[in-house]
Design brief:
Blueprint: E1 2-8, E2 11-17, H1 27-34, E3 44-50, E4 58-64, H2 74-86, E5 94-99, E6 102-108, E7 113-117, E8 122-132, E9 141-150, E10 154-159, E11 185-189, E12 197-204, E13 208-210, H3 214-227, E14 233-239, E15 242-248, E16 253-258, E17 260-270, E18 278-286
Parallel strand pairs: 2-3, 10-11, 12-14
Antiparallel strand pairs: 1-2, 1-17, 3-4, 5-6, 6-7, 7-16, 8-9, 9-10, 11-12, 12-13, 14-15, 15-16, 17-18
Bound molecules: ligand LBFN2T5F.
Ligand LBFN2T5F binds near residues 44, 64, 76, 204 and 207.
Subunit structure: Homodimer.
EC number: 5.1.1.7
Protein name: Diaminopimelate epimerase
């Protein structure tokens, strides 16, 4: 199986070119590919499949590292767009990509940045995230107020003056299963400064803590503006993996940042359809 590795602010992906749309991508296959020790290692998989939707030639079939499907991936779609341009699969640097959340328009810049129109981010109910306390008795927890934000996929964005770098995100934060019946991505971010900057960490549904999350960054920016009494602006978000810019207008949101292709090669999967699969890198080349 041919693959390409890429990342957007260190949110990393295995891209699987599938121009014929023939690849049978099971959850076990995705888990094997994403495994950090036995596989190629990634936060998720992006199958590059032909689109059946008018307006886009290519469909981003995104899967989380645990094999689950998600509606949208903001960093993923930027890396996907970079790949389409570099592989010569599109003739322009401005085009739409089909996702499970609908069409997303991208602009691939020549300085390494990709911008995606993420669509409107819809603010929902207030709720709380529960994380293990790092101080206090073993087993104690801390509750963080947050707000639901739908960016095509579900988020709970918590603006907090606590030290976000000290939070224990090794386990999924507790959340209200009635508000988020399909699980949720949870962001913790510092209050916006006067120049609309913030620091953000995220625990992703289906992937654990990641170095960055594009949809989470948009959700965080919208929640940060709301907490500051605003609704629009350009927010600069520093994640552990790098810096992203989010534009928020009454009509839509945009996400801008680097999208990088790292390596390409071939991988073989051995084993049964059930786990464990073993991944063997057959051939590999770093990107020129
Ligand atoms: N890392 C992605 C989000 C991937 C999907 C998410 N884990 C979910 O299950 O909704 C991003 O950059 O947006």
């Amino acid at each position: 199986m041919e693959y390409v590795l890429g990342h957007g602010t260190e949110n990393d992906f295995v891209l699987l070119p599938d121009a014929e749309g023939r690849l049978d991508l099971t959850p076990a296959t995705v888990r094997a590919l994403c495994h950090r020790r036995r596989g190629l290692g990634a936060d998720g998989v992006l199958r590059v499949a032909p689109s059946e939707v008018p307006g886009a030639e290519w469909f981003m079939d995104y899967r989380n590292a645990d094999g689950s499907l998600a509606e949208m991936c903001g960093n993923g779609v930027r890396v996907f767009a970079r790949y389409l341009v570099e592989a010569g699969l599109v003739t322009s640097t401005e085009f739409a990509v089909a996702t499970r959340a609908g069409l997303r328009s991208v602009v691939v810049g020549d300085a390494g940045e990709v911008t995606v129109d993420m669509g409107p981010a819809v603010v929902g109910a207030e709720s709380t995230a529960i994380v293990p306390s790092t101080a206090g008795p073993v087993g104690s927890v801390t509750s963080f107020p947050g707000v639901a934000v739908d960016v095509g996929n579900p988020h709970l964005a918590c603006v907090t003056s606590a030290d976000v770098d000290a939070l224990d995100l090794t386990v999924a934060p507790g959340h209200d299963p009635e508000l988020f019946p399909h699980g949720v991505n949870v962001e913790f971010l510092t209050p916006l400064t006067d120049t609309l900057t913030t620091r953000l960490r995220v625990h992703e549904r289906g992937s654990g803590e990641t170095r960055s999350c594009g949809t989470g960054t948009v959700a965080g920016a919208v929640a940060g503006l709301r907490a500051a009494g605003g609704t629009t602006g350009t927010v600069t978000v520093t994640t552990p993996g790098g810096v992203l810019r989010v534009g928020v207008t009454p009509a839509t949101t945009t996400l801008t940042g680097p999208a990088v292709l790292i390596a390409r090669g071939e991988v073989e999967l051995a084993g049964s359809a059930d786990e464990p699969y073993a991944c063997t890198r057959v051939a590999e080349a770093a990107r020129a």
